[in-house]
Write a structure and sequence with these properties.
mainly alpha
Length: 295
Amino acid sequence: MKAAAVPIAVPRSRLADFFVFTKVRVNALVVATTAGGFYMASPDALNVALLIGTVIGTALVAGGAAALNQISERDIDGLMDRTRLRPLPDGRMKLGEARLIAWTCCLSGIALLAGIANALAAVVAAITLVTYVWVYTPMKRATSFSTVVGAVPGALPPMIGWAAARNAIDAPAWALFFIIFLWQLPHFLAIAWLYREDYARAALPMLPVVEPDGASTARQALLYATALVPMSILPAALGMAGLIYAIAALALGLAFVAMGIRFAMHRTKPNARLLFLTSLIYLPAVWAVMMLDRT
């Protein structure tokens, strides 16, 4: 018997609905990578007020983008077990209220970044918003390549932090971008495999839906995890971090690859879940060691 996807529990308050609508829990990673990018770009004297303002501004834009995504996909969300109890498909939030919340978050976040940081940080945040809501979101209905496209806005938050701290986008910022870009792909391919029945129910052409045997899903997950290994060492090569970071990044990357190989050999839900859980450990660990071993 196939395991059913577990829907999100119905929130018991308006505040809880707001948190679900703006994906506060998921966007905690956005905030963390933004703060990491800011820290890595900062001089020895950290500007705490600027860091806080940058994090809040980015969190607002990310929350608004998530809300606009849910507005656009409210029909799809209503078809999938794991999303049907979100505020819009469940009828707990009106469309006008949803739009007001979404646009207030987006515009106030971009304005805060422009005011407290600089125009470059605000522009990068605006690009993140546009690519997520008006490029990636509609592509999800048309092609499995949307997963790759969606990794672009997902990898931009550390560049927002970098731009806020340094008012520039240089090679080290791109290194942070590509680490998160490559990390997202095995992470989301594992999720797509775990919830492939849900995606099929909503007629979303995710890779495990288009190619149900999972061979392409596993092969691509392994390919991106393997490419992540040399990319994750690049910050040490660029002088951003030291030898301790390089060793840790290599070890963590090889462990990630090992889980990719395990999934490729046996495409089961437990192995996909193990790959997903490994991804959840990998990124915070790499980010933490990089920040601790910053040169």
